C-alpha cells in the first residue's frame, strides 16, 4: 500500500518545495475566506506556493495552477473534562468563560483531483526517496513562522537603525524657532508633508507621491545644496519620538538625541512628556469619554448575522475596523465587492494575498498587511488616525477600480475656491477634488463660555496652590458655529497678485461646486498646544440628524466681478553665484522630445535635478513665458501634437493601454501626474478610446476647471467633460447614518468605535462586539457620514 501511495506522489515531486528564507507560509488562514484549521473543512496548504485555502476554495486554486499536492490541516477542539488532562502534552487554551480546552492537530497530504489522502505519520512508510523529501517539506511548513512576522519586523519602528549622523550632528546657532502650527515650505506653498532640517531649521516639503499628495521635493533639493543630512517630519513629533529621515543614508533612521536636536529649535519634547502625564493623571473627561462613547453601564443587546459581524482587534487596529464597518454599510461598496465576490475570486492573481479586491472583504490581518504595505504609519502596530486611513483607503480603491465600478465615487465632490486680491478686488475661481468636509471648532463660540472661563480660573488657582484641579468642563459648541467658521474667508499667506505683479493681501473662500452622494464630515478636534503638546479638544457638538448644505452651493464668476490675469509668478533667480549642477541625462531626455537645449537645461535646474519627468512638467507649465525658447517641433506648440512618446512609454510601462494613455495625456495637457490620476478616475473611457485613432489631432482639454459656473442640477460626468473627475452631483440635503468616535488624548493612542443606523436602529460596533445602541453619543463623534436624501 505504501508503495502504491509513493507511486502516486512521484509525478508531483518536482512541484513540492521546501520553504526558503523569505517564503511566506499561510498555514493558519485561507486566502479567500475566514477558514482556518479550526473550520469544519480545515485548511489546505499548497506545497508549492504555501498559500492556504478553505475547502470550497482549494479546487479553484488547483484548476487555476495545476498544483495537485496540498497539506490538509485540521485542528480539533475538545473540552478538558478531567484534571489529569491538564498535564497532557496537548496544547491547552482557556476560553473567555474560564473553561479549559485542548487542541489536537491532524495533518495529512491530499492529492487532487482524486483526493487521495496520506496521513503524515504514514509518510515514513513511503519509499525512502519520496518520504525524505516530503517529510522535510512538511516539517518546514508546520514549523514556519507567521507570514506576517517579516512585515512586522519590517515595520517603521523595528527596521530603522540609528543614523551615523545622529551623534555628531552640528546645529547652526541661527536663532530659528519653530512654532507648533502654521508651517509652510520655505520654497513653495506646500503646507503638508513638511520636514524640519535638523542642522539649520529649514522647513521644506517632501517628495511628490502617486496620489497627488506630498510636495515638490524641496527638502531633498536643500540637502543636495547643503549636505545637511537629517530631517524630521513635523506632524509626527510626539512625547515618544518623531519620524527622522537621513538624506545621506537614503532611509528612515533613529536619532537617539532627537529631543536635544528639536529643543535647539524650540520644540521641547520633555515638556510635552510632562504635560502628557499631567493630562493622563488629571483630565477626567477622558475617562467619561470612554464610558459615554462605549455606552458603558448599559445593558446592550448583542446582535448577529449578515451586516452585524464584528472585526477582531489586531492590536491598535480599531481605526481600520471602524472605517471598514462604515464603508461596507454603503450599498455601492457592498455591490462592488460583496456582489462581485465570485468574479473577483475567479479573476484573482496567482497570489491572492496581494490582491486588493480579494482582500478587502476577508481576513482583517491579511487585509491590513496588504493595505499597509510600504506605509510607514499603517504598517506599524501603533494607533492611527481614522481620517487619514479613510483617505489612504479611498486612494487604494481608486487605484484598484480601473475598468470596473469605483465605489469611492460616492464621496468625490468638487470644491470651488474663490481668491480675491484685496487691493485690486479682482478674483480667480478654481476647482479641486475633495472627499470630505473638514469643520473647524470655534471654541470662542461655546454656548457655555462663562462656565469655561470660571473653570479655567479655578484650574489655574488650583495649580498655583498645588491643589487638586476642579471638575473639568466640556465646551458645548453649536454645529451652526462650526459651519459658519468653515464658510468664513481666510487670509492667503504670501499671496501673489497677477494684477499687481507683486505680493499682496488676498482672501480665499470655499464653496461646493458639486455635492456627493455621501458627505463625510470630520470635526477638527486634534491640534497642537503652544508648547507643542498634541491635544484633543474636549468638546460636545450638537451634530444634526439632517443636514442642508444647499446654501453653500458655488456660483462661479458673478456679474461685476473682474478676473485676475492668468499669469504665473516670476522665477526667482537664486542668489548663489556658483555654477549650477545639472543632470545632463535628464537634459538629453527632454531634448530628444524636441525641446530646445536651453529650455531643457533651465527646466532641470529649476526642478532641482529631480529627473526628466519633473523637468518636463516644468516646461509645460512655463511654455508661454517669453524667455523660454520655443520647442523646435513642426507645429507652434508641443500641446497641439501627439503626446510625447516618452510620456506615453512611462504610462504604458505601468500596464495601461496605449490608446488610454494617449487620451489621458491629451486631456491633461501632457501632465504625467494628472494623466495618471485621470486614468484611474476615468476607467469607463478606456472602451470609448479604442474607437479613437492614436494619431488624432484633437486639441487637448484643459484640466484646470477654472472660471466655470459649477451650478448645475445634473451630475458632472466624463460624457460632459472628459478631463473632469467623475462626480455625482445633486441636492445638498443629507441624513446622518453613521459616525466614528475616538476616545483618548490623541490620534496616536486611545480607541475607536463606530455607530451605524440600520433598519431604523442605531448599533454600536466595538471591535468584535456588535450591539443595539441605547444612547448613541452623536455629540462626541470625530467623523460623521451622511447620505443624500432622495428628492421630494
UniProtKB/TrEMBL annotation:
Keywords: Hydrolase, Metal-binding, Protease, Repeat, Thiol protease, Ubl conjugation pathway, Zinc, Zinc-finger
Stretches assigned to the USP domain: 309-789
GO molecular function (one): zinc ion binding
Active site (record annotation): 318 (nucleophile), 751 (proton acceptor)
Keyword 4Fe-4S annotated: no
Listed Acidic residues bias regions: 687-700
Catalyzed reaction equations: Thiol-dependent hydrolysis of ester, thioester, amide, peptide and isopeptide bonds formed by the C-terminal Gly of ubiquitin (a 76-residue protein attached to proteins as an intracellular targeting signal)
Superkingdom in the source lineage: Eukaryota
Listed EC numbers: 3.4.19.12
Enzyme class label: hydrolase
Biased composition (Low complexity): 712-725
Annotated region described as Disordered, given as residue ranges: 687-727
Single GO cellular component term: cytosol
Entry-linked PANTHER family: UBIQUITIN CARBOXYL-TERMINAL HYDROLASE, UBIQUITIN CARBOXYL-TERMINAL HYDROLASE 13
InterPro entries for this protein: Papain-like_cys_pep_sf (IPR038765), Peptidase_C19 (IPR050164), Peptidase_C19_UCH (IPR001394), UBA (IPR015940), UBA-like_sf (IPR009060), Ubiquitinyl_hydrolase (IPR016652), UBP13_Znf-UBP_var (IPR041432), USP (IPR028889)
Protein name, as recorded: Ubiquitin carboxyl-terminal hydrolase
Family according to the record: Belongs to the peptidase C19 family.
CDD domains cross-referenced by the UniProt entry: Peptidase_C19B, UBA1_UBP13, UBA2_UBP5
Residues the record lists as binding Zn(2+): 185, 188, 205, 218
Keyword Phosphoprotein: no
Gene3D superfamilies xref list: Cysteine proteinases, DNA helicase RuvA subunit, C-terminal domain, Zinc/RING finger domain, C3HC4 (zinc finger)
Stretches with biased composition (Polar residues): 701-711
Residues in UBP-type domain copies: 161-269
One GO process term, biological-process aspect: protein deubiquitination
